[in-house]
Amino acid sequence: KKKKLIDLEIKLQISQIRLAQIGLDQDDEKFIALEAELGILKEIAKIKKGIVDEEEKTNLAKIKGDGLTQKMAAREKALSQTQTGTTANRIQGLATLAGMDPTRDSLVKKDTETEEQFAGRQSAADIADMRTRVEGFKGVLGPAMEELKKLGPEGELVATVTMGQFAIADSFMFVAQEFERGATKMEKGAAIAGAVATTISATASIMNAASQARIAAIDKEIAAEQKRDGKSKQSLDKIKQLEKKKEAEKRKAFEQNKKMQMAQTIANTAAAVMGVWAGIKDPYIGPNLATMVSAGIIALGAAQLAIIAGTSYSGGGSSGGSASMPSTVSVGKRRDSVDLAKSQSAGGELAYMRGARGTGGPENFRPAFYGKKTRATGGYVVGEQGPELFMPDRPGTIVPADDTQEAMAGASNVTFNINTIDATGVEEVLEGQQGNIIGMLRQAANSYGQEFFEDVDETIYTSPTARRA
Length: 469
What we know:
This protein is an all-alpha fold. The protein contains 12 helices and 5 strands. It has helices spanning 2-21, 29-83, 87-98, 115-149, 153-180, 185-228, 233-278, 287-310, 346-353, 401-407, 423-432, 434-447, and strands spanning 358-359, 366-367, 380-382, 388-391, 397-398. A 3-stranded antiparallel β-sheet has the order 3-4-5. It has a two-stranded antiparallel ribbon with strand order 1-2. The longest helix has 55 residues, at 29-83. It is rod-shaped.
């Protein structure tokens, strides 16, 4: 319509000039000036039509741009619907995404781009639409994946594999999108490094889930064996082997995860550095700033690598159930030999070999705290933790250690008065008093808590005045 108005306006002006030329000679200056004016009017008409064309293009681009913006907003809304709410609501959002017109239909070719470049932008738009639909499908499967994880390690493995496949597919579609849109070499490199890092991360998650599933299977075997028997030597050996197998599986999983983390760190560092250099065209990012930022990123990546490399497997406790109760308990056995060089008492050796109750070995045996039947006459020094005098007359009683020490005070000194002239008399007296001598020496030793011929019955030599059982 604007062009038609311009044409009518120009025709009217031309008609006016032609009327003014009537009656003038072609050589007349006025005629010549009017002809020049006609030429100027025609040029003005062309310029005005060109302006109209540009306005129409601009308006068309604006309309398409507004339409593209609206479509993108609608697409984001539908994608958001697939991420929350009930499964039915998510499916409705996915259906809305699938029914939308392709983004490429809303693109407008720029005057500065070639046909090939415009075709690349259209292909990139197609890939972006595909990524959106894949993300929507992933959102629809979200509740199902959560339910799978509740089924145990096996279900978690299936969920991890599924989510890993989505992540890997999206990362490589992004790489294809960058190539189609005509990204720079650094942008393409950053996209590739990012895809590699995502793939490594997803693979590590899948491997870890698989290891956990195998460990859980071993735990089930251990629990089943403990329920079946869990006490016999054969059963305990089997459980022990399963525990070793589980520990080896844990160690293997740790080493695998360690390697994957190191590889992922390298890929992420490379992606970050290339991403910095890809943005060097921005007015705020120059070569100097990009170099400093890249150096910082590389230093952080190296530090992270060092931390990961420095980790080591520290082992883990068993999760296969509580340990079974022992089928037998051994507290040792009596020896059948004695070291005479270390022996402290022949009586202790004999008591130990005969099975008396007490502590120590045959070289240092001490009787236990227990009573025994006493002989008819005399008193007995008792009390392993202090001398006490026991009088074996019905009813018997034990004199406390303090009172016994007071009662026995002065009994430690023994004096022998021998009235004889020759050695033969002395020998006869000592021989006749063997029992009394043994009893007195024993009494003196016992008052200091020491033993002295405890197992010798001195009554077979003489009738002692005091002795110990």
